[in-house]
């Protein structure tokens, strides 16, 4: 862990600024934009040669609702902040931060307009099918709001807002935010890795960094850490989130926990460090037309749920898990939703498929028999409550897809799971980092995956870019105002 540096140890500073933002992903950009608009001078430090980070490599979904203009344009005029809160508080739990979720839901419509003002464009159409990522530019998508049990908790309304890009759209969001930072006069210092916080007593007054092997020092009246999570730090995973050890990583390679460790080194609180999200490379368009079974041949969740939720459930199942389809189900998947994936095994009978997959004899036969009995008798799924529109009796011939095969086919690769961390520095509603000893750490803020924000043990796509920008903005505003108050 990097130790802090005392102000008395710094002979002179290379740069001085009001607000120093460490990390130029979505949270850092949002903090910089609002700090500049509030009148503060801003420098962003970015360890790589350009802005974006993991945000730019993400799907680009923004979890927004409460009655946005895009929702209304797509025919969904019945959403509001209370309805959104009912869904998110359940979907992001257990142990979600309800106070932060409430604030986020109340400010969601305004956040959507903020993105549009920054230049993020949205196509006014809905992608109305289960998927990880629409193969179209449709601006709105479902993220599990219409699946059990959430459709009984809140009115089902789609809230996945997507930039006008096919496939992964994080780059489009970051391009707009970075351009806004530039237009407002926020400086970005690339190829510069922050190393340690600088303290004057208990107050954070800057950062030491390294650029091309040279030491660089920054004096700041406020520091905002937006350095990402710690999935790329094997030791931190072993210490805090060992469930992700051995699995793939959803990151740009720089989510090494450095910002979290800098905060911990000066006595900052951490929160929810064991909470993670994992994605299982099973295609939702296949899963909902068949079933997802574990290594014992048993179903364990309604297959039409948001794929991040069936992934998280699969992570804790005896594995490997398999997607089981009949020929009719496979043929019904739209070609654009196949992502180049082909069945790993095919068989005329379930007994043959069980043998191929190494499942207990009779297990898959019993699972399919129970599923088909209910599908035939009532057209329902009383065990896991899959929506009736996906339910029909399954008949051979049979196929099994191994989600450990990477999208597009090829050889088996890894475990099929890729994840990231949700825990980080504990913050208040304005992004101020909390101290182990009580109160806040003077001069220090955090947002994005470097902080523990809304999430409990659940996750929904779009809530990283969403809460990263929302609470990044609040951190930038509060930091700028604190600077002005100190100078008054």
UniProtKB/TrEMBL annotation:
Keywords: FAD, Flavoprotein, Oxidoreductase. The keyword Flavoprotein applies. InterPro entries: FAD-dep_OxRdtase_2_FAD-bd, FAD-oxidoreductase_2, FAD/NAD-bd_sf, Succ_DH/fumarate_Rdtase_cat_sf. Residues 18-464 form the FAD-dependent oxidoreductase 2 FAD-binding domain. The keyword Flavoprotein applies. Its cofactor is FAD. It comes from the Bacteria. It holds the Pfam family FAD_binding_2. Transmembrane segments: none annotated. This is FAD-binding protein.
């Amino acid at each position: 862990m990097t130790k802090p540096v005392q102000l008395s140890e710094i002979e002179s500073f290379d740069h001085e600024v009001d607000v120093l933002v460490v990390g130029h992903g979505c949270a850092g950009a949002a903090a910089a934009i609002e700090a500049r608009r509030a009148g503060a001078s801003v420098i962003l430090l970015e360890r790589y040669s350009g802005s974006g980070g993991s945000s730019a490599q993400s799907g680009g979904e923004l979890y927004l609702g409460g009655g946005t203009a895009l929702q209304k344009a797509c025919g969904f005029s019945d959403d509001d902040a209370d309805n959104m809160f009912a869904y998110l508080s359940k979907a992001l739990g257990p142990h979600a931060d309800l106070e932060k979720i409430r604030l986020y839901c109340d400010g969601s419509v305004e956040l959507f307009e903020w993105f549009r003002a920054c230049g993020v464009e949205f196509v006014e159409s809905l992608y109305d099918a289960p998927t990880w990522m629409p193969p179209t530019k449709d601006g709105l998508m479902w993220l599990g709001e219409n699946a059990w049990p959430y459709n009984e908790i809140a009115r089902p309304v789609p809230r996945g807002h997507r930039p006008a890009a096919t496939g992964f759209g994080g780059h489009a969001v970051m391009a707009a935010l970075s351009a806004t930072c530039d237009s407002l006069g926020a400086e970005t210092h690339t190829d510069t890795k922050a190393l340690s916080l600088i303290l004057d007593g208990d107050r954070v007054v800057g950062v030491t960094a390294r650029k091309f092997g040279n030491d660089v020092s920054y004096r700041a009246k406020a520091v905002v850490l937006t350095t990402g999570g710690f999935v790329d730090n094997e030791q931190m995973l072993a210490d805090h989130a060992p469930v992700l050890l051995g699995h793939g990583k959803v990151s740009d390679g720089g989510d090494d926990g450095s910002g979290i460790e800098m905060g911990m080194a000066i006595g900052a609180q951490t929160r929810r460090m064991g909470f993670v999200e994992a994605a299982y490379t099973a295609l939702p368009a296949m899963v909902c037309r068949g079933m997802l079974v574990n290594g014992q041949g048993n179903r364990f969740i309604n297959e039409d749920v948001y794929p991040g939720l069936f992934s998280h459930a699969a992570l804790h199942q005896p594995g490997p898990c398999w997607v089981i389809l009949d020929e009719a189900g496979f043929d019904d998947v739209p070609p654009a939703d196949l992502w180049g994936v082909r069945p790993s095994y095919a068989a005329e009978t379930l007994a043959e498929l069980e043998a191929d997959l190494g499942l207990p004899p009779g297990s898959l036969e019993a699972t399919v028999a129970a599923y088909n009995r209910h599908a035939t008798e009532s057209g329902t799924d009383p065990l896991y409550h899959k929506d009736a529109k996906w339910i029909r009796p399954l008949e051979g011939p049979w196929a099994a897809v191994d989600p450990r095969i990477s999208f597009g086919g090829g050889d088996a690769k890894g475990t099929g799971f890729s994840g990231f961390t949700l825990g980080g520095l504990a913050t208040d509603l304005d992004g101020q980092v909390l101290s182990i000893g009580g109160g806040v750490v003077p001069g220090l803020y955090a947002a994005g995956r470097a902080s523990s924000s809304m999430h409990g043990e659940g996750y929904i796509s779009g809530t990283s870019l969403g809460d990263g920008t929302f609470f990044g903005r609040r951190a930038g505003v509060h930091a700028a105002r604190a600077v002005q108050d100190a100078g008054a």
